[in-house]
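User: I'm writing a short methods note and want a consistent example. For Leucine rich repeats and calponin homology domain containing 1, I'll paste the sequence; you return only the C-alpha cells, no commentary, since I'll be parsing the reply automatically.
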Amino acid sequence: MATLGPESARPPLSQLGSSPSIQTHIGSANLPPNRGLERALEEAAASGVLNISSRKLKEFPRTAANHDLTDTVEADLSKNRLADVPSEVCNLVALETLNLYHNCIRTIPDSIISLQSLTSLNISRNQLGSLPACLCGLPLRVLNASNNKLVSLPETIRQLHSLMELDISCNEITALPRHIGKLKALRELNVRRNLLCVLPEDLAELPLVKFDFSCNKVSTIPVCYRKMKQLQSLQLENNPLQSPPAQICIKGKVHIFKYLSIEACLTHCACCHGDMIGSWL
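Assistant:
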C-alpha cells in the first residue's frame, strides 16, 4: 500500500497546476460522456474487434452508423441491458465470435441466420425460453446457452455438424433431442442442473471428452456409455443414480465403465440363455 510522505515532501500548491496527471484528469473530465463509447467504435472500425460490454446499453449505439464496422469479426456486448439481439449485430456478416452474456434477451431473431461466419456464440445468462431452429443453420463450433429458461432444444440441432462445445447447463430442459447423436464433432457437453430423467443412448456414439450431467434426475446410465473411449471427464453427482449404484459412482469413471461392461455382459448372457431355452422348447 502506498503511504503519504512528510509534509515537506509534498510539492507547493503553486506547482499542482503544472502536474501532468492533474492535467490529464481535467482533460478527461471535459470529454463528452459518450466519448468512451465512441472510442470503442473507432477501435472496432480499425481492428475488427468491437468491445462495448458493461455499458448499461439498452440498444445498439446509434452513432455506430458513423463508423464502418462491416469487417468486425468479434463483438462483445456482454453485461448490458439488451432486451433483444440488435438488428445491427445481425448485419455484421463477417462476425466469427459473438458474446451476449448477461443481458435481458428473451428471443433470438431469425435474421441471425445472416451470420454465416459465426463459429462461437455466447448467449448465457439471459431470459431465453427457446432457441430458434434457424440458429442451427450457422457454422457454430461453440454454443453457450447456459443460465436461461430453456425447456427444450430444437430438433434441428442435429444440423450443427461442426459443433464441438455445447453448454446448456442451468436451464429447465426435461429431455435431450432424439438426434443429438448426429453431432459427430461434439467434444464437450454440459447439461448440468436441468430436469433430465433419461440420458439418450445416442450420446455413446459421440467423441465426447467432457460430459457433465450433474444435478439432474437421472437414475440409470445406459450400458452403451461404456463405449465412450475418449471420455476424460465425467461429472454425475447429485443424481438419484441406481444403476450404477452410488457406491460405484463415487469411485470414478473407471469403476463406472467396468460396472457397465459387466451389466452389458450379463444382459447378453441372459439373452443367449433365453434363446437357448426357447430353442429347447
